[in-house]
Amino acid sequence: MTGFFLSGIIIIGFVLTSELVGPSKRGVIGAMPGLAFALGISTLSLVSWFTKDWKVMSIIFGIVGIVCTIPCYWLFVESPRWYLGKGNVEKCKLILKKIAKTNGHDLGDIELKVPSKGDASKKGSKTSMLSLLTNGTLRKITAIQLVSWFTCSSVYYGLTIAAGNMGDNRYISVILNSMVEVPSNIAILYIMNIPRCGRVKSCVGGLIISSIFCGSIWFIPDKHTLAVTGLACAGKLFICAAFATIYVHAGELYPTPVRNLGLGVISVANRLGGVMAPLIVNLNNIYHNAHFVVFGVVGCLAGVLCLLLPETLGRPLPESPEEIYQSSKEVKIVSLELEKSDKRPLLLSDMLDEGADVDT
Fold it and tell me: Is 80 exceeded by the pLDDT of residue 201?
């Protein structure tokens, strides 16, 4: 039950934070959970090393979870995009003004324009659970994301499990292997926001380079354990970068009405990858280092498929499938248009960005 509820919390928390900030900060906010995850695995290994009792360990982390979760009820705010999408204009205004006040700004009087249902239907922008299958754009994105998330998860957890078999002390091995993720997550915070790299190239690069390192282990003689460990850690470093990027990229690809649903669907592939990871690692018992070859092959496949996805760096979050493949200059989110007292039109994504009146 713990895993069941935690999986949902991760997706909901990621979607909420992505919708509360502008384009320039989505990369940073989206990649921060990966850094926290790396530190969490290190802490878990350290605690388990000293306790040696899963019951005591469960109590310790249960208490930590309660202490950290309760304040979130007062610290978090609902997504203004979600309120506006549901037609609750007044609550959307309250959230925006609260954000502005927290950042030391006065938003003033604003007027939110929400398109009528008739206009939305004329544009063919109806979105629902079935649209992930019936809409060609969403179907393509979902299929590629399913492969990418499965690959990142299986390779990530596979390398983490394999780290326990490297060295005499499995606890130290896991701690060192997880600490490799820290520089990776810090570096990707900046790399994915570089225009020449963006989300797509960052993700493809992480997957391909990780697969090269993993596949190279096949050619290393058994006696060179240090070289195998080094290549595995290098593969872990780059797969972490790809994992952090696909989280951000997926959140920016799906339109607001189905963003939470889309991420929920592809997170199933994430969990399946984690389930398959130990089975893939067990291939090592059949043929030495065969699991690293599998990680290399699936990584290359996912990297090539990600080249088919559109770049989302610096773009407003889409509100309909039609806006996904439009260039940033073509995107016009009418439903999120705001007018200030001087009648100057603003987009919600601009108001939540660093260059506008509200800076979060």
Answer: yes
Number of Cβ atoms within 10 Å of the Cβ of 52: 9
Can you give the C-alpha Rg of the chain in angstroms?
Answer: 22
C-beta separation of 152 from 207 below 8 A: yes
d(CA 30, CA 36): 11
Contact call for residues 312 and 203 (beta carbons, < 8 A): no
When mean pLDDT is compared across 62-71, 91-100, 189-198, the lowest value belongs to 91-100
Q: What are phi and psi of 77, to 5 degrees?
A: -125, 155
b/e burial code for range 111-143 (CB count within 10 A of at least 16 → b): ebebeeeeebeeeebebeeebbeebebbeebbe
Q: Which of 141, 185, 239 is nearest to 29 (CA)?
A: 185
Task: Measure the CA–CA gap between 119 and 41, rounded to whole angstroms.
Answer: 49
Burial (CB count <10 Å: 0-12, 13-18, 19+), residue 341: exposed
In tens, the pLDDT along 25-74 reads 777 777 777 778 788 888 888 888 888 888 888 888 889 888 988 888 88
